[in-house]
Amino acid sequence: MGSEPAVTDLEQLKDHPALALLFHWNAGAVTQANFDRNELSVYIDRANIKDACSVLKPQFNFFSDLTCVDWYPSEPRFEVIYHLLSHQLKERVRLKVKLQGDDAAVESITSLWPAANFFEREVFDLFGVRFLGHPNLRRIMMPEDWEGHPLRKDYPVEGYR
Amino acid sequence: MILNMGPQHPSTHGVLRLLLEIDGETVVKLIPDIGFLHTGIEKTCEAKFYQQVVPMTDRIDYLCPMTNNLCYVLAVEKLLGIEPPPRAQFIRVLLNELTRIQSHLVWLGTHALDIGAMTVFLYCFREREEILRLFEDVSGQRMMTSYFRVGGLSLEPPLDFLPRVKKFAKIFPERIDEYEGLLTGNPIWINRLKGVAHISVEDAIALGVSGPSLRGSGVDWDLFFFMQ
Q1: In angstroms, what is the C-alpha Rg of chain B?
Q2: E strand or H helix at B164, and its extent?
Q3: What is the distance in angstroms between the Cα of A161 and the nearest Cα belonging to chain B?
Q4: DSSP per residue over A75-107, as a string?
Q5: For residues B210 and A141, what is the distance between their CA atoms, to the nearest angstrom?
Q6: Which residues of A touch B (CB under 8 A)?
Q7: CB-CB neighbors (< 8 A) of B83 in chain A
Q8: Closest to B167 measured CA to CA, from B98, B103, B91
Q9: Does the pLDDT at position B56 exceed 90?
């Protein structure tokens, strides 16, 4: 399995189907990409994420996961992560959006894939990231009157006592 | 009329609350309320070493502990660039296939039970018991096995492990024929399932349906064969 160094040069990666689609649409939207351990991750500007998803959707038809990472105390603090799968190409791609801690909001993609509905609610519930335009952005795991967002790194593992 | 169903209800196999809007006997709208089984495993894992997380992964789904063990250790191994010895890899795959069989047996048995066919349930659990006994001999536990480790396995399986697996593999196809004989062609089974809850291809993709359910909608997709 030995790990080869990650490829971060956009020029070398541009032939990957997902990046080719994105470059063809708007090369400026892709800020960074890396191909590590046979997995491609593409960083997209916050403003473009929904459009980037709709550009990829004809090929990468299947939305498989949406999650978030809290890099506290660094800024930009949050990374919202989208996993897409192409049934046709048998390829996966991972999109990432960086968000500032004091402005953790990104456009919802529930209108593209209804499957994203619960995932966005979960990330909102556990990380406190807001999804603009979400039809029903309420807590999903925690009780409605819960205070705080448990998966944030500054939330104590044993809770507040 | 709005009816509240759950979170504890005899017809659900877990805790789930449903808000039903009904018109006579027909449900016209349904709002699911989940989260009753949320234990915050990810949060607990934040304060653990990588090796300590394995027992947590058993508890994600008690019907496929080994599968979750494997997903987790593969991820850590991928990060660290470790390749476990071939023997450990074989045993992992073997145990994962057995896990899959016993998990599917629970599905088939309880599904038939819910529909009104009690016998199949007992037959399925008879075979499942043999697999659980194998798990117990291998790991010391029937269900929460915690058997896999980052880089391999926790223990060598006992000497009679392989012969017993071979024996099971030999008799199991006949047992599947037995289930078939009890269900396929059974008018209750057919009447209660045929044409029920059909999901179109478009809906299935939009809703993120995967695995056997996606194939059930008619999409030719199998991770096992296509994403090696």
Answers
A1: 20
A2: helix B161-183
A3: 16
A4: SS-EEEEEEEEETTTTEEEEEEEEE-GGG-EEE
A5: 22
A6: 1-3, 37, 61-64, 87, 90, 92, 113-115, 118, 139-143, 150-151, 153, 155, 157
A7: 1-2
A8: B98
A9: yes
Is residue B145 within 8 A of residue B131, CB to CB? The reply is no
Indicate the DSSP class of residue B30. Answer: E
Closest CA to A91 of A27, A29, A32, A35: A35
Are the C-beta atoms of residues B224 and B210 closer than 8 Å to each other?
no
Size of interface A-B (CB pairs under 8 A): 50
Token pair listed for B81: 């660039």
End-to-end CA distance of chain A: 44
Phi, psi for residue A80 in degrees, rounded to 5: -90, 135
Whether A15 has a pLDDT exceeding 90, the answer reads no
- Give burial (CB, 10 Å; 0-12/13-18/19+) of A44: buried
User: Does the pLDDT value for residue A70 go beyond 70?
Assistant: yes
Predicted confidence band at B117 (pLDDT cuts at 50, 70, 90)? Answer: confident
Residues of chain B with pLDDT > 70, as a percent, come to 99
In this prediction, residues A107-114 reach a mean pLDDT of 95
DSSP state of B145: -
Q: pTM, whole model, 2 decimals?
A: 0.89
Which two tokens mark B45? 């894992």
Q: What does the block give as tokens for A30?
A: 């892709």
Number of neighbouring beta carbons within 10 Å of residue A55: 18
Confidence class of residue B196 from pLDDT cuts 50, 70 and 90? confident
CA atoms B112, B113, B114, B115: torsion sign: positive
Rg (CA), chain A: 16
Instruction: Find chain B residues with C-beta within 8 A of A142's C-beta.
Output: 35, 38
- Distance between CA atoms of B220 and A126, rounded to whole angstroms? 35
Q: Which residue in B139, B144, B143, B104 sits closest to B125, CA to CA? A: B104
- Contact between A141 and B34 using a beta-carbon 8 Å cutoff: yes
State ipTM: 0.87
